[in-house]
Amino acid sequence: MICRRPARTRIGERRRPVRFDVGSQTLSTLTRQTQGASGDLGALIKQLIAAAQPLEGRFNGAGKAAFDSFKARSDEITADLNSSLSAILGGVHGMDTAFIQGETEMADNSRTGLGAANFDAARFGTRG
Q1: Residue 52 contacts residue 67 (beta carbons within 8 Å)
Q2: Which of 3-17, 19-33, 96-110 has the lowest mean pLDDT?
Q3: Helix 26-38 to helix 74-116 angle, to the nearest 10 degrees?
Q4: Potential cystine with 27: which of 9, 94, 96, 106 (Cβ 3.0-4.6 Å)?
Q5: How far apart are CA 4 and CA 9, in angstroms?
Q6: How would you classify residue 61: left for phi > 0, otherwise alpha for psi between -120 and 50, otherwise beta?
Q7: How far apart (Å, rounded) are the C-alpha atoms in residues 20 and 1?
Q8: 22 backbone dihedrals φ, ψ, rounded to 5°
Q9: Is this model's pTM higher than 0.85 or not?
Q10: Contact 39/54 with Cβ under 8 angstroms?
């Protein structure tokens, strides 16, 4: 998926709308890559907690309370992130299905229109 938008506009210039170029496999690839990343979220959160462990004694007040809360809720946070990611994947899958169906329908409609077209009527020839 490529997003094309000018970096900056001049004063008084109207911004052009964002244009997305989506290839036929873009959303399928995005879904596959995102599914792989979802399994890593829990491990990354646990690594973050382990990496911050040496700093634990240095926190005081609100910082200590926030860190302790994060540590205690790490499984809940991981589940929430995975749930959100699953919802995103569901939306991407729905978009992929819609694009594929739209592409198929467009091709079918084009073939139907092509079959019904009278190309002989459009020929320009000499009359004699």
Answers
A1: yes
A2: 3-17
A3: 170
A4: 96
A5: 13
A6: left
A7: 6
A8: -110, 120
A9: no
A10: no
